[in-house]
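Pipeline run #58 for the internal structure catalog. This entry was flagged by the ingest filter as a single-chain record with no existing model, so it goes straight to prediction. Upstream metadata was stripped on purpose; only the residue string is passed forward. Reviewer on rotation: M.T. Logging verbosity set to normal.
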Amino acid sequence: METKQPGALKRFWAFVKKPSAKYSILAIFSVAFISGILFWGAFNTGMEATNTLAFCTTCHEMRDNVYQEYKETIHYSNRTGVRAICSDCHVPKDWTHKMIRKSQAAFEVWGKITGSIDTREKFEAKRMELASHEWARMKGNNSRECRNCHDFDAMSPELQKQTPYKKHMKAKESGKTCIDCHKGIAHQLPKEYEESDD
């Protein structure tokens, strides 16, 4: 006569219900699982809160300098009412690249802490350096954030004026990326850049 062995599922269930020194393993797993969900929700909420225009303009270094320039551009106000905010251009959408960028941004807070850009004069003195870092980042990722909204393949020859359309198609063929031609699209160009262009 065969004795019935408990199934693997029953053995597992018996194991997780078995009390540890004080609590069952099931209770410990449940608490850990719920805690993980709460942590992840709080973490993502915090991340999204740091991607808002209100957050980006809380420090006067941004509010008094680049934000004022940005308000004069088509990315802020246009006929369709579509607005690109700071994070649309400066923070990647996908999780991995977003975490890398957020880590880099944490180091950029150093400028706020040390006061290296806390006046208009100090900001202007560092504008070329700051812009160069951002241009290099955008060049290195093929202007990924620009392409969240703008795509060569979505450009219509019927709707776009012919001169810019031809330039865009030529740029696509030659492997150029948005930042190669559109420096200064949302912020003033550094004086050093304008002088080197003359």
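catalog note: The two ends are 98 Å apart (CA to CA).
catalog note: The domain at 24-145 is CATH 1.10.3820 (Multiheme cytochrome fold).
status: ready for reviewer M.T.
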